[in-house]
Design a protein that fits this description.
Structural class: alpha/beta
Largest sheet: 5 strands, mixed
CATH class of the largest domain: Alpha Beta
Shape: globular
Number of domains: 2
Distance between the termini: 53 Å
Strand order of the largest sheet: 2-1-3-10-4
Radius of gyration: 22 Å
CATH topology of the largest domain: D-Maltodextrin-Binding Protein, domain 2
CATH superfamily of the largest domain: Bordetella uptake gene, domain 1
Number of strands: 10
CATH architecture of the largest domain: 3-Layer(aba) Sandwich
């Protein structure tokens, strides 16, 4: 076959594939879409996925099913989506934990956190709130008072987390390093057991994610001493930022939620889904739900390009925090 004929054939095949992809995007979606999450029902990611799925179903005109594949710090869900067909019917509710922290935390992953996924939209910033059991420490009302107690009792107080290397662990490790205090880490298997331990007085502190922290503070079960964002949350206006409350200038420790698809998703479908997500999360009603009940700051720019940029920067940032914490999972 001549060089000219080979080239012409290649161009024709490329044109046919491109035309087929565009036709597929024109009709997409024609059946139910699944959003897979890596954490249990009732977790912050699960709540977000269900709220988003409900709104997307109305926007796209097909059912959106939320499926939880828990285990290995969200890695099972990530692996399932990385291996899924890139046809626009399988997406992942990802987090900075699953796609930045885990890259440094686990010695080996079955997927590449960047190469094996398509960025669809970043969904918002998720802070942690420093909680203390009001019954166990009735005299501690501020972060300054807590720091005085910690410095007077090195290695005697402890903090719970939702697991080794979770953001609830690394926020506390980052706090201990910045404040130069010695606190013992006690990991638990998830949000429920960690909160139970705090309420029972088994641990002294818990850097819990914003949604469950808001519920526990408003229910009078715990008090919030600080939030890991540069400004106070709309849902917790009386809880000051950690930089101010703990006299730790520049302290910030937030994660994010984002929507990913398998790699090689046709660009036209990716753009269509990104647009639908951006439309949903930018509505006043959705933003109010995020800020008032979840403590999540809506993304100013949810675009795939902005998401990819944040994702890459976070991989480097969390790798350093994981190194400082000494956390590692085989």
């Amino acid at each position: 076959m001549s060089h000219w004929l080979k080239r012409t054939t290649g161009l024709l095949i490329g044109l046919m594939l491109s035309t087929a992809a565009l036709a597929q995007a024109d009709t997409w979606p024609t059946r139910a879409i699944t959003i897979i999450g890596g954490f249990p029902n009732g977790a912050g990611t699960d709540l977000y996925a269900r709220k988003l799925g409900e709104a997307l179903a109305a926007t796209l005109g097909v059912p959106v099913v939320v499926d939880s594949k828990t285990g290995a710090g969200g890695n099972l869900a990530s692996d399932a989506v990385a291996r899924a067909q890139p046809d626009g019917y399988t997406f992942l509710l990802a987090t900075a934990g699953t796609h930045a922290i885990n890259a440094a935390l686990y010695k080996k992953l079955s997927f590449d956190v960047e190469r094996d996924f398509t960025h669809i939209a970043i969904l918002g910033d998720v802070p942690n709130v420093l909680l203390i059991n009001v019954k166990k420490h009735p005299n501690i009302k501020t972060c300054s008072e807590l720091l005085t107690l910690l410095r007077a009792n090195p290695g005697k107080l402890n903090y719970g987390s939702t697991g080794n290397g979770a953001s609830t662990h690394l926020s506390a490790a980052q706090f201990a390093s910045a404040a130069k205090v010695d606190i013992v880490h006690v990991p638990y298997r998830g949000q429920g057991p960690a909160m139970t331990a705090l309420l029972a007085g088994d641990v002294d502190l818990f850097f819990n994610q914003s949604a469950p922290a808001i519920a526990s503070i408003k229910g009078g079960l715990n008090i919030g001493l600080a939030v890991t964002t540069p400004a106070a949350l709309a849902a917790l206006p009386s809880v000051p930022p950690m930089a101010q409350a703990c006299n730790l200038p520049g302290f910030e420790s937030s994660t994010w939620y984002g929507l990913l698809a398998p790699a090689k998703l046709p660009a036209a479908i990716a753009a269509k889904m990104s647009g639908a997500v951006a439309q949903v999360i930018s509505t006043p009603e959705f933003k109010k739900w995020l800020t008032d009940t979840q403590g999540i700051t809506p993304a100013q720019d949810p675009s795939p390009a902005a998401f990819a940029k944040i994702h890459k920067a976070d991989i480097a940032k969390w790798a350093e925090i994981v190194r400082i914490s000494g956390a590692q999972v085989d």
